[in-house]
Specification:
The protein has about 500 residues and is an alpha+beta fold. The chain has 3 domains: about 140 residues, Glutaredoxin; about 270 residues, Class I glutamine amidotransferase (GATase) domain (Rossmann fold), CATH 3.40.50; about 30 residues. Helix content is about 30%, strand content about 25%. The protein contains 10 helices and 24 strands. The protein has an 8-stranded mixed beta sheet. It has a 4-stranded mixed beta sheet with strand order 2-1-5-6, covered by helices on one side. It has a 3-stranded antiparallel beta sheet with strand order 11-12-22, with no helix packed on it. The radius of gyration is 30 Å and the shape is globular.
């Protein structure tokens, strides 16, 4: 009795000690392949460099479905780590906006927008407003995270929000204008993402000397008109001083309304050739591509048909590089190949390539939408469509150029022509500018989250085998266990009978 009492008291003492320690220490094991539950070095540096306290007000609903409850739990665990690393500089609180109308109005005034979720109650499904957002505040500055998307880059959203309100002087990105390039309004998604960490300003290069040293990086996107040699000379001067340049250019142009593809000449292609970078005047075709809707006529009837269009390659082969880390698929409409023909004193790294079934067609081309594409139409593989050139490109100072052989992949357009681009398209552009401009390492967090890994395609025979194996294996294991258990009991019974007989 005394021993039992001692054991119970010792167990209770251990439980109390564990609870006390858990209030002061936070530890979790991260066995995920992308370490999504481990804070990055970039986040830790941002947290440790805080000069003033940061308050995070998390507006999360309490009664939510399981997958949303997990998001709340993950976010709370992350906030505990932020608080511990900051040594109390980061404090947080959780508020349920649905408790009363005043609290809900306060959350919405702070920029936290509800979403509609399906809630199951007593065998019934009802729709309910759900809040999953946060407000990050420092002194008079604040930044909101309107909705914490389940499985999204949660750490990036939080760390970038903290950096945005804590950094006073942001690097300035210059968006070159004046040669038919899209303006800031035509790249709303990229601008929104870049504006978190940078000041983005349009810059018009004139014939007279222009001081470009204020810009951390210059971005030249989809010029249409001829670029004067004097403007290109100023880009040379920018690179000679260690400047960094992002270029996304159209060497060809596709027009589906007339089913023609033509060459685009701006002078930029000649300037790049002088640096060993060649953007060919060809159209990349890839068996892995996007679809288009084609209107067809059959008798008196007109109907739309969806067909694969190889001139819209979906790029999924990326280098192990900070720019493309975490990217899964980027759509590059009417892209051209990028090759490096310069010397070995500079380093060229291909960062995006076509699939194993791809090819090129020299412009001008006619788009035959009725063409039946076969494997013979894709004789090439691994064609480079984007790359990074580093070295003494101009003069004796190290500089960098990121070059993409398509100018429109991250452009939304304006007015009725505006369209939403897929997230990885925006990430490719924003990651490129991050790589050129930001030394904190936040670039690695933008695509950190749940990775989409589709089930590998398998043959029908193997599918049937796996189907019946999944169905029969549990039954077989139960039968084997039953036979084993029956034999064991029989042997035990026989042994007892023998002992009783003796």
């Amino acid at each position: 009795m005394k021993r039992t009492t001692t054991f119970i008291l010792a167990a209770l003492g251990i439980l109390v000690l564990v609870n006390i320690l858990s209030d002061n220490f936070f530890l979790r094991l991260d066995l995920t392949s992308d370490h999504r539950y481990t804070l990055s070095k970039a986040s830790k540096n941002i947290i440790r460099s805080l000069k003033e306290p940061v308050t995070i007000t998390a507006y999360f609903s309490n009664n939510v479905p399981a997958e949303l409850a997990k998001t709340k739990r993950d976010f709370k665990e992350m906030l505990i780590e932020y608080n511990n690393i900051s040594k109390g500089q980061i404090v947080y609180e959780f508020i349920d906006p649905s408790v009363d109308q005043e609290t809900e109005q306060k959350a919405m005034s702070a920029g936290i927008q509800p979403v509609i979720a399906n809630i199951r109650e007593k065998d019934q499904v009802k729709q309910q407003k759900v809040y999953l957002g946060a407000v990050v505040s420092m002194a008079e500055e604040s930044e909101n995270i309107p909705f914490m998307q389940p499985g999204a880059a949660m750490e990036y959203a939080l760390s970038s929000a903290i950096k945005k309100i804590s950094v006073k002087n942001k690097p300035v990105i210059g968006l070159i204008q004046g040669h038919g390039e899209p303006g800031i309004a035509a790249m709303s998604q990229a601008y929104t993402a870049l504006n978190i960490l940078y000041e983005v300003e349009p810059v018009t290069i004139t014939d007279t000397a222009k001081n470009l040293t204020k810009f951390s990086t210059l971005a030249l996107v989809a010029p249409k008109d001829t670029i004067p040699p004097s403007h290109l000379a100023q880009l040379d001067e920018f690179l000679a001083k260690g400047g960094r340049l992002y270029i996304a250019m159209n060497r060809v142009e596709g027009n589906l309304s007339v089913q023609r593809g033509l060459v685009v000449n701006t002078g930029l292609e000649t300037w790049l050739m002088g640096k060993g970078l060649m953007v060919e005047s060809n159209f990349v075709v890839d068996n892995r591509c996007a679809n288009i809707n084609v209107r067809q006529q059959q008798g008196m009837f007109t109907y739309n048909t969806t067909i694969k269009f190889p001139y819209l390659p979906l790029i999924s082969k990326f280098a192990d590089h900070p720019i493309t880390k975490g990217l899964e698929s980027v759509l590059l409409p009417f892209a051209s190949t990028v090759t490096y023909t310069g010397d070995t004193t500079k380093t060229f790294v291909p960062i995006a390539q076509t699939s194993e079934l791809s090819g090129t067609q020299q412009a001008p081309v006619y788009f035959d939408v009725s063409k039946q594409w076969g494997q013979a139409d894709f004789p090439m593989k691994g064609l480079t469509v984007a790359g990074v050139l580093t070295g003494k490109i101009v003069g004796q100072t190290q500089s960098t150029i990121v070059l993409v052989g398509d100018g429109d992949f991250a452009v939304n357009g304006e007015g009725e022509q505006a369209r939403q681009q897929q997230p990885d398209n925006i990430s490719l552009m924003v990651n490129s500018i991050d790589y050129l401009s930001d030394d904190t390492g936040l670039i690695e967090l933008r695509t950190k989250g749940v990775t989409n890994r589709p089930i590998k395609q398998i043959e029908d025979g193997k599918k049937a085998f796996l189907k019946y194996l999944n169905f029969l294996l549990p039954l077989l294991l139960v039968i084997i266990y039953g036979i084993f258990r029956s034999q064991y009991n029989r042997n035990l019974r026989n042994k007892r009978m023998e002992e009783g007989h003796v």
